[in-house]
Specification:
Number of helices of chain A: 4
CATH topology of chain A: Pnp Oxidase, Chain A
Low-confidence stretches of chain A: none
Largest sheet of chain A: 6 strands, antiparallel, barrel
Largest interface: A-B, 36 and 36 residues
Order of helices and strands of chain A: EHEEEHEEHEH
Helix content of chain A: 10-25%
CATH class of chain A: Mainly Beta
Structural class of chain A: alpha+beta
Number of domains of chain A: 1
Oligomer: homodimer
Radius of gyration of chain A: 16 Å
């Protein structure tokens, strides 16, 4: 059951991200690649997460410049080898505006009990994704 | 349905990785965090994948020194907020031994049709993971 990759448009990527409750934030922590599953919402084209990123990221995500991360979500059927994957690459910054922060804290409940979590907005500068497609169906 | 994280042992992490067919390789590509879903097998404690990593990673993964990547897999129920996540961090190197390469190519069929893919061995130096646990059940 070998598949081909059909590229998604930016709009399709954003729709799929908005329609799925969780993904994985990918960042560099003390020069090592790091990844953490989190739940998210999409608001005005940005991915909003709540996390304790910790380590070296905690300070950079809190700076005005922010920190570049990737945010990935997928729904792939391991038996049928069908589904999709989307990656949003962009700048992550702490949400500091009290009204925004309060609104996101209402809308987005972390699945894991956390002390002192942060609300983080990831503004995608690059949105790419694909579907795994049956080449026979694609050729029809 | 808030959960707590129960840390997994190294052996539990490896067993869960070996029992799941796919995960995500996380690396740095031209100074940006990158992530790609792939299928894998576990052989003698190492994660084996086939991919065209491309870009700046293609040259470093082919060097004797290899390149440090993270490999992540999870099975999280987005409704029940239960499941697990495992991250293996370690050195990725091309499998160049012809017998090993041929054996892995038999055992591990890529889900996506690829020209000229590579077989890559990731030797975990760090294996961490957790289960999302109902705190009420955990306290029993």
């Amino acid at each position: 059951m070998s598949r081909v990759l059909a590229e998604l448009t930016v709009d399709e990527c954003l729709t799929l991200l908005a329609g799925t409750p969780m993904g994985r934030v990918v960042f560099t922590d003390r020069a090592l690649p790091a990844i953490r599953p989190v739940n998210h919402i999409v608001d005005a084209g940005a991915v909003i997460i709540r996390s304790r990123l910790g380590g070296s990221v905690a300070s950079t995500v809190g700076s005005a410049r922010g920190v570049v991360v990737a945010y990935q979500a997928d729904q792939i059927d391991p038996h049928e080898h069908t589904g999709w994957s989307v990656v949003a690459t962009g700048t992550a910054r702490l949400v500091t505006d009290p009204a925004d922060k309060a609104r996101y804290e209402r809308l987005l409940r972390p699945w894991v009990s956390m002390d002192a979590d942060c609300v983080i907005r990831i503004e995608p500068q690059l949105l790419t994704g694909y579907r795994l497609v049956d080449p026979a169906a694609a050729a029809r």
